[in-house]
Amino acid sequence: MSGHNKWSSIKHKKGAADARRGKLFSRLAKEITVSARSGGGDPEMNPRLRSAIDVAKNANVPSENIDRAVKKGTGDLGGGPLEELIYEGYGPGGVAIMVSCLSDNRNRTAAAMRACFSRYNCNLGANGAVSWMFSRKARFVIEGEKADEMELMEILIEAEVDAEEVDVGEGRAEITAPFESFEAVSSALSEAEVPVNESTITMLPENLIQVDDLNEARQNIRLIEALEEEEDVQAVYSSLGFSDEVLEALSNE
């Protein structure tokens, strides 16, 4: 697996605890709301919404929560409008970090981001400080028996879908494609009845910053995890990479 996906696998171990805290449900509901607001409330006509609903269902989000999130996005239910915000900065050792937020209060979110970076002796940067180091991609995660590289490659080839990478390991597959191919990949997997655990437009680093010091690696992880715990944070992207020795030590913790 690539360095990025090895890090993704380590982060994935947090998933169960994240769901227990209700954070996952909140993130998925916000994504549904924003998807419905930007592209309409009909999943058949809005690929981003359809994908967000599928992921929510796979995560066992109750149907009433999904319906309520859609109605908030279309304006059929009250509630403050959600704004998509991006914050950029550097972690220990010069690791580039981008934070994607959905917020109904820009000032609250900005204060929380500043406090989080400051707590780990890091600083937020100006807009564009690190975003040039990342590329916008479509990303799909499949878990379980369908996480088979050959089967997934066959599905994508038969559908004539442009996918850049299919990474498989530990019963988990990640498909990376150009962000323009999001709908095509989503439709191909749906038609092949492949359940998708995650589907997002993500930001992947052009190059990883390899961290060879275990303590520095831990500091970056603590910063990223602290950011992920913030109420308005939807996703954290970073250029964090590890040497094999550091990766092994982290995997055993």
Structure description:
The protein is an alpha+beta fold and 253 residues long. The protein folds into three domains: 3-74, Arc Repressor Mutant, subunit A; 83-132 and 208-251, 2-Layer Sandwich (Alpha-Beta Plaits), CATH 3.30.70; 134-205, YebC, transcriptional regulation domain (Alpha-Beta Plaits, 2-Layer Sandwich). It has helices spanning 3-12, 15-20, 23-39, 47-58, 63-74, 106-119, 149-158, 182-191, 214-229, 244-251, and strands at residues 83-91, 95-103, 124-125, 134-143, 165-169, 172-178, 198-205, 209-211, 233-238, 240-242. The chain has a four-stranded antiparallel β-sheet with strand order 3-1-2-9. A four-stranded antiparallel β-sheet has the order 5-6-4-7. A hairpin with a 2-residue loop joins strand 5 and strand 6 (172-178). Helix 3 packs antiparallel against helix 4 and helix 3 (23-39) packs parallel to helix 5 (63-74). Residues 1-5 have low confidence and may be disordered.
Topology of this structure?
Elements: H1 3-12, H2 15-20, H3 23-39, H4 47-58, H5 63-74, E1 83-91, E2 95-103, H6 106-119, E3 124-125, E4 134-143, H7 149-158, E5 165-169, E6 172-178, H8 182-191, E7 198-205, E8 209-211, H9 214-229, E9 233-238, E10 240-242, H10 244-251
Parallel strand pairs: 8-10
Antiparallel strand pairs: 1-2, 1-3, 2-9, 4-6, 4-7, 5-6
Helix pairs in contact: 3-4, 3-5
In a nutshell, what does this entry contain?
It contains ten helices and ten strands. It has 253 residues and is an alpha+beta fold.
